[in-house]
Amino acid sequence: MIAALRSSECVASVLATSRLGTPLKAARAMSCAPSTVYRAVARLEQEIGAALFDRSPEGWAPTHVGRRIVALAETIEREAAETELMVLGGRTGFSGPLRVSASDGLAEAYLVPVLARFSRTIPSLAIELVVDNQFADLRRREADIAVRPSEKPGDDLVGRRAGKLAHALYGATPLLAKRGMPASPADLGRFGACVLAESLAHHTAARWWSKRIRKQVEVAFIANTEMSLAAAIAAGMGIGILPCFLGDRLRGLARVTTIPVGPPVDIWLVTHPALRRNPVVQGAIRTLATAMRRDAAALAGTRR
Q1: Planar angle of CA 47, 50, 55, nearest 5 degrees
Q2: What is the mean pLDDT of each run of 10 residues along the chain (304 residues)?
Q3: Whole-structure pTM value
Q4: What does 49-96 look like in DSSP terms, one character per residue?
């Protein structure tokens, strides 16, 4: 018998290493020491008698045998998440923290006070804000509620539209005063571009710039978070696209109103179908929707 296959630590370590590319990143995600992940993988490899990963400076890639272990781990993870969702969906309360997922811009610049108000209605409830600029997988219960600015929030999810989120070009006031307000996309060549990383290609800012990079502008700064992007724009490194509720409130920034970046996108509040009737989840969604209706003008970029 291969006992390590029945060890949740060993199987989880293989899965995390496969997804993230190295044991070091896997350990960070699992909140454990890197040595724990290395030992777990080594134990499985020793008991199985085969390598589970091809090691290279670029990262660890699962071998044929490793992929079988990854498939086993994903099955365990999926079954556990579905069971947990079924149990939580039938309860009137909520065990463990309520996980809410959002991009860093929404999370840090908007959601925290709203969630704080909701938490005061249920003092025993802990709220975990999952800041992730990728879409959290609600089927694996990476989050219980996701705040998604998107036209397609997920076919297998349920939720409601809570408002519109607008984006615009922004630049530091001294930079725009020095080089002049651009009147058309052709004028963008006078400025460096502050852009989001390629891994965030689904964001409005990344999609808009992708049509213009290498054609009209030179990239001056690349960020993998909206807040660091905002900081670079405020520091005068170039112009870039921000959500209007964020860009309009930052001191020293000016909106470039002469070049629109497209219509606002829907803001969706979504959850897994198994949680749609849980009163805690529904209470949180109602609180978020109420706040977004109140702040509709700021989110849609019509209030300056």
Answers
A1: 120
A2: 82 92 91 92 91 92 92 84 64 74 92 93 88 80 88 76 94 94 87 87 78 72 93 95 94 93 91 84 93 95 78
A3: 0.72
A4: TS-SEEEETTEEEE-HHHHHHHHHHHHHHHHHHHHHHHHHHT-SS--S
**Which residues are CB-neighbours of 28 under 8 A, at least 6 positions away?**
none
Cα within 13 Å of Cα(185), Cβ side: 9
**Average pLDDT of the chain?**
87
Q: Which helix (H) or strand (E) holds 207?
A: helix 204-210
Q: Are 245 and 298 in contact (CB under 8 A)?
A: yes
Neighbours of 298 (CB within 10 A): 20
Residue type, 281: V
The label of the residue with tokens 């702040």 reads: 295
H or E element that contains 196: strand 192-196
Q: What is the DSSP string of 281-297?
A: HHHHHHHHHHHHHHTHH
Angle at 301 between CA 294 and CA 255, to 5 degrees: 145
Cα–Cα nearest to 104, from 198, 234, 200: 200
The CA angle 35-40-44, to the nearest 5 degrees, is 145
Residue with tokens 């804000």, as numbered in its chain: 129
